[in-house]
Amino acid sequence: MKTHMPTSVAFLRYINSTLKRIILIMAVTIAGDLHAQESANTTTISGAAKTLSGTDSADSKSAPAIENPAKSENWNFHVQNTETVQGYPGFQAKYAGPNSLPSGGETRETVSLDVMFGMRLWQGAEAHIDGLMWQGFGLNNTRGAEGFPNGEAYRIGTPVPNGMIARLFIRQTIGFGGEQEDVPDDQLTLAGKRDISRITLTLGRLSVADIFDQNTYANNPRTQFMNWAFVNNESWDYPADAVGYTTGFAAELNQPDWTLRYGVFQTPREKNGLTAEDRILKWPYDPSADGPSGDGSLLLDWGMVTELERRYTINGHPGVIRLEPWLNHGDFGNYQEALSVPGADITQTRAYRFKYGIGLNWEQEIVKNVGVFSRAGWSDGKTESWMFSDVDYTGSLGLSLNGESWHRPGDTFGLAGALNGISKAHQEFFAAGGTGILAGDGNLNYGWEKVVETYYDFDVWKSVHFALDYQFIDDPAFNRDRGPVSVFGARLHWEF
Known about the structure:
The structure is a single chain. By secondary structure, the protein is mostly beta strands. It has one domain: Porin (Beta Barrel). The protein contains 5 helices and 19 strands. The chain has helices at 7-40, 228-231, 278-281, 335-338, 424-431, and strands spanning 75-88, 106-122, 125-136, 158-175, 180-183, 192-195, 198-206, 246-254, 258-266, 282-283, 302-314, 317-332, 351-367, 370-379, 393-402, 412-421, 449-461, 464-474, 485-495. The strands form 2 sheets. The chain has a 16-stranded antiparallel beta barrel with strand order 1-2-3-4-7-8-9-11-12-13-14-15-16-17-18-19. It has a two-stranded antiparallel ribbon with strand order 5-6. Strand 8 (246-254) and strand 9 (258-266) form a beta hairpin. The two termini are 42 Å apart. 40% of the residues are buried.
């Protein structure tokens, strides 16, 4: 019989351990800064005084003027670590099913560590590899709510560290000439310059969300909103294994005001399963990667997505709108057909068929340091969800404020709300006892799932951040007979 530590006690213990980690990280960072400063003080560049960042010092006005073109990297190295704890107190529930959140309350913790290396191969070409380690579990083993509270909670929870090569890809950029732009150093990008008018080709293993459905204000659960409803478009059943990665190809045509993207990616043979490459890229070895999991046929099991991005400004404030139609093909079940099967066993209805939908993604700076964002999505509502969530219809709206207004430019405050819904056939499927990826209470009194999240992310020290988070989930998993649920969370993140 499982026992769970009271939410308040576990949360306080986490805060205590987090403060100790912050102190340790700060000590290591200070030591590194002192060493870097000592080295920098003994270095001159072309006779001009320089700061630690390599730019001209304000105290060296008498030195000859030096042009500073963007530095082109031949390689880079990044590390990130994120620890998240979440818990909720007990809530009202008339019944429970195989995927239901436990009504008595629960606390869970997740940890992720990425070690990323990038290398320039030839002109315009980069190779990147990302070694991922994760440990811990999402609430109820990542089931029970469609707007799931923790974007760092993988569906393969583990009490001991697991690892995999999450990303391994080549990116080729082909410029058309003309005006160029600076490319900053990033975890999956080498610093340098590139033509604004260009084609970018990416081939290998990656997250589809690395390229598609990006949003400045709501995209990264390690530094921004944590809930799935704000990280990606929940109605898009995007290609991924149980950890969120797959192999595929993407092409991007970029112009000054717009970008057109297309991608095709493999999907797992088994619902919410591992892919074939996980046999060698994941450790410890998981026999489910041999079968029935693994990749489906390349010609039969795939997901395609197209994205048209239009950039604009209103009174000098940038905005972006993205339109994202998508199409999947695989051995999927049908919700209406499952109603004729005892126990609504959707596996008995599986056949090769299409699942399709469309998404809308918008962001707009209102004034300096204040931005709003929104996503909306629709899927066919009749074909079995396979990889992400059970949502057929979704809409979200949110606000993000940078702390510069209150003299803390490294801080961020966010507030957002979302609605998730499903089709009539999908409702009847769950009411008949069917189970999906996240939902399945054994019965259903249908209502739109409603999610509200607010967070404050503190800039503790350089690249060390600590966040407090609160989420309110009403009618979790579309069920009016359960909830509402209040989820309290904290997150520690650092990177270099």
